[in-house]
Amino acid sequence: MIAVRLCKPYQWAVFGSPAYFKAHGRPQVTGDLTRHECIRFRRPEKGDIYRWEFMENGSTVRVDPVGGVTVNDGELMRSLAVKGVGLIYSSTFHTSRELAAGTLEPVLLDCSPGSDGLFLYFSKTARNQPKLRAFIDLCHRLLAP
User: Fold this and answer.
1) What distance in Å separates the CA atoms of residue 86 and residue 28, rounded to the nearest whole number?
2) Tens digit of pLDDT for each residue in 112-128?
3) What burial class does residue 31 get, using C-beta atoms within 10 Å of its C-beta: 0-12 exposed, 13-18 middle, 19+ buried?
4) Where are the domains of the chain?
5) In the chain, where does DSSP find H-type helix?
6) Which of 56, 59, 125, 143 has the most CB atoms in a 10 Å sphere around its CB?
7) Which family does the similarity line name (predicted)?
8) CA distances (Å), origin 86, targets 19, 65, 74, 75, 98
9) Spatial distance between the Cα atoms of 59 and 3, rounded to a whole number of angstroms
């Protein structure tokens, strides 16, 4: 098998707008999230509310976010967070535009899990297929920082 990296490693975290943090403060530990408005994400494929995941004392801790807004679209979720509606749980990969623009800021990074990034896996026999090569080139162009 061959693995081709499609993006840099990224990290999961809680994100909020500068205006939200100015009005409500920044959570310092995961327990602080109960005092914040969180924008919840309903996973379309399962129908459940995604529980936010953190690493504490070497163990995975899952938090049920508290909030009056639930969405099932990542773009909408990020847009609401930029407008100061509440905090979101996302990755630095998905929020890269907002981070670069300064419209979202991460918190709780010290207890947030990381990821090695996205990879495309394929067999050695498939590596010379023009369609696969074109797809890899497109992914590199679209996912380039």
Assistant:
1) 16
2) 877 777 788 888 878 77
3) exposed
4) 10-115
5) 18-24, 74-82, 96-101, 130-143
6) 143
7) Belongs to the LysR transcriptional regulatory family.
8) 10, 11, 14, 14, 15
9) 29
